[in-house]
Amino acid sequence: QAKKAGKNRYHFYSSHEHGGRINPLKMEMELHKAIERKELLLHYQPKINLKTGKITGVEALIRWLHPDWGMVSPGTFIPLVEETGLIIPIGEWALHAACKQNKEWQQRGFSTVVSVNLSPRQFKQSNLVQTIARVLQKTGLEPHCLEVEITESMTADIERTISTLQQLKKLGVRISIDDFGTGFSSLNYLKQLPVDTLKIDQSFVRELYKNPNDETIVKTIISMTHNLNLTVVAEGIESKEQLAFLQQHLCDEGQGYFFSKPLTKEQLEERIPDIQQIVKDHGISQDLNE
Ligand code: C2E
Ligand code: MG
Ligand code: MG
Ligand code: MG
What we know:
Oligomer: single chain
Domain EAL: 24-276
Structural class: alpha/beta
Strand order of the largest sheet: 3-4-6-7-8-9-10-11
Strand content: 15-25%
Keywords: ATP-binding, Kinase, Nucleotide-binding, Phosphoprotein, Transferase, Two-component regulatory system
Protein name: histidine kinase
Largest sheet: 8 strands, mixed, barrel
Shape: globular
Bound molecules: ligand C2E, magnesium ion
C-alpha cells in the first residue's frame, strides 16, 4: 500500500508516528471534518526568563490526531490549510482553545501569557481584530494574557501592518515576531512596528558554539532588540552550551527542548517542578518575588 501511495506526485509527509505519505486531497477532506470530530488539539511549550527562571508564558502549538494516521504535525498540514483557506476556521479554533485554557489556568492560580501563532492568511483577514476581540470576550481572558506571533514575511505591506498591529495593541494583546532573522526586515522598518517581543529563529540558536557567524547574528539581534526596548526570546534551545551563551549575552527568555518539549496541558502541569529544577541546576537564580 505504501508503494501505491508512493506513486502520487504530490504528497505530504506526516509525522514520524505515521511515517507514510498522505494524498493532499484526502488530507484536505479529512481536515474539513477535523474540528467537528474534535481531532485537533493544542500542545504547550513553556518560555523561561533566563535571569529569574520563571515561566513567563506558554506557546500553543497545534496538533492533529487523526484516527488512522496518528499525530500529524503542523509542518505537514498548516501549509495545506493555508493554501485552501481552511486556516481561518482552524486558526480561530486554536485561538479560542488557547484562550479558554489560559483562563482555566488563571482560575486555578497559574497565571501566564499564552502565545498563539498566526498564519499570513489569518493576519491579512480584515476581521482579524474583531475575531480576537470576540474570542477574548467569549472566554473571559484578559487581553494582556494573550500574545500573537506573526512572522516578518507577513509584514510586507507596511501601512497595513502598522494599522493592524496598532489595533491589536489598542485591544491590549501582546505581539511577537516569530522566526526573527529569516526575513529581511530593516531596523528602520522594525522600529515602526508596535511589537513587544522578537523571537530569534531556532536556525541561529542551533549552531551556537559551532558557527561564529550565527554567534554574531545572535549577539547582534539581542543588542538590537534591547536598543529598541523590546524583549528577546531564543527559540530551539537544546543544550546547556547554547543556554550558557544566551545567558552570557543577556538574552531575556528562552524556549526549547532543553527546558521542555511542547506538552499536553496535563503533562505541562506535571512537568513544572522538573522545569524549575533544570533552571536551578543551570544557575539561573530564582527570584520568586519578581
Ligand atoms: P513556530 O511557531 O516557530 O514553533 C516552533 C517549532 O519548533 C514548534 O514546532 C516546536 O515544537 C519546535 N521546537 C521547539 N523547541 C525546539 C527545540 O529545542 N528543537 C527543535 N528542533 N524544535 C523545537 P511545531 O509544533 O511542529 O510547529 C511548527 C510550526 O507550525 C510553528 O512554528 C508555527 O509556525 C506553526 N503552527 C503551530 N501551531 C499553529 C497554530 O495554531 N496556528 C498557526 N497558524 N500556525 C501554527
Ligand atoms: Mg511560534
Ligand atoms: Mg519560531
Ligand atoms: Mg517556525
